[in-house]
Amino acid sequence: MVLRLIDITDERLIKVGFPEKKRDAVFIELIGLITAAHPFEDSAALFKRFIEREDVMSTAIGSAIAIPHIISGEIGAPLLAIGIDKDGIQYDTASGPVKLIFMFVGPSQKREPYLESLVRVSKLLKVEQNRTMLINAGTPSQVLSIIKELD
Questions:
Q1: Which residues of 92-110 are buried (b: 16+ CB within 10 A; e: fewer)?
Q2: Which residues pair with residue 69 across a beta bridge?
Q3: Arithmetic mean of pLDDT over the chain
Q4: What is the pLDDT of residues 49-68, one digit of tens each?
Q5: Total domains, the chain
Q6: Comparing C-alpha atoms, which of 97, 67, 62, 61 is closest to residue 80?
Q7: What's the CATH number where 121 sits?
């Protein structure tokens, strides 16, 4: 069974606009959404793991996109939190401002759906028009509608 992106996210996992424009603050907000909707692991532990992953190699991939991702033995299916900020956030010293953050937590077992989801996001975000539509979305429900239409 192929998971669509709509299958691994929902409005509770989407935030549009961030008051704090730095990566760590945005990570804390997105992780808070994840743990509020799916309490499987402590927020501080997840934050530590995402930062450790970023320390190995930045997940900013260009075109104002970042796709931070980790594996957790605590969940059985992938989860996707989405953060969008029109003005962009300061992600790292090498990349420019990031406007689209697709934050994944994948299960340590059954990795294929998680890896397929990463590929789906990459394909969706390759298209400039898709990125523009998402960046211009004003609410989580609009973001979800765009993803549903495009994926």
A1: eeebeebbbbbbbbbbeee
A2: 104
A3: 92
A4: 999 999 999 999 999 999 99
A5: 1
A6: 67
A7: 3.40.930.10
